[in-house]
């Protein structure tokens, strides 16, 4: 007989002007992996906030181990063993592993911290998650994959019974994903219930026992993965046919050079030479650590250029800071939109305009009417879903947050756009909208450099592709010439040479 550890009954959550969840009922079986999928804005995040007590429900009931949860709160939920691990990891970089694991949950011996116990327990937890590292290692000295395992260790120390994983593989390598899946399956064997949220549908189909599809705040269906494939999932999620993102033919590119690097070196990239043409999408491919983001940071003036030449519009330029890059009409849509691209506690209006206030002000006074009109026009163009211009960006879905970052730079009148992982953490429907935005920018004569870890995405959206390995550009292809296999072989080439050397 099935044992349901968590039941949601007719849950509804309303915000002013928006129904985020509408009469949602789901049962989570003990010791099983239950995935939630849906477009950004489908209601997944709101559902998790209700389960963990981060927000209050408008109506409906939540049952845990057969008892209704009343007066829920994050602390109460943690004490029950319902523990979330979010995509943006919640740790203090300057503290050690053991300090992060026991932060707010310290063990004492009388009035004194029991450091001996906490170190011993941390070693046991790290062994359990397959992490061979000192408990006293600082979080800032660890890779994102290992940080993820520390987050899971934090859950284990609290005797987790329901583990909620929100986009857990978004920044992980293939080997790190395999290790994570091994740990998830071990936890499942130990009786832990996993609520798994991901836009990577192949992973969802691989690891889940049950998959629930949400759309527009409602449950569309719950099925076993044996009854589904990726195309069926996509159709359930979006409720419409997607425009396939593969180009039918290569477009004609004007051979006008808007950006050129000649033998550029920084502390992180070596002997970089390339050109960017007007109206093209130049893809940058390569494995994690190949130097893709470091190239973007050199273009944008984040990393100092030690030698080489940079030409913009045919004229040699010195880009020594992001301010220099912005003055040359270069925009950088960063991978880490929440930390670096957005001011989450500010409004939609403020986020779109704070980098371009000089364009909407006279003698230091902002023209409010002009500001609102410009922002509304841009948000309509990008099809951003929001309630009011005063709504905090924090409350928007991931896809809409990404569009806000783009809107900010559109208002700046940039002509060269650098997109670093533009679709990271957003769903298939929002991805198509981002692709359409990229294409429309090039139709207006803008030029785009796009970095993505999804090889097929780079192939499908780019006009030309540069492959990087170990800080070098190792090959260049037209999109019609490239395959995932070529990217993988080329991007691993210098790493193999370095290892063999």
From TrEMBL:
EC class: hydrolase
Membrane disposition: Peripheral membrane protein
Transmembrane helix found in the keyword field: no
Localization in the cell: Cell membrane
SMART domains from the UniProt entry: AAA
Keyword Nucleotide-binding appears in the UniProt entry: yes
Record's protein name: Galactose/methyl galactoside import ATP-binding protein MglA
The species this protein was found in: Tissierella creatinophila DSM 6911
Gene that produces this protein: mglA_1
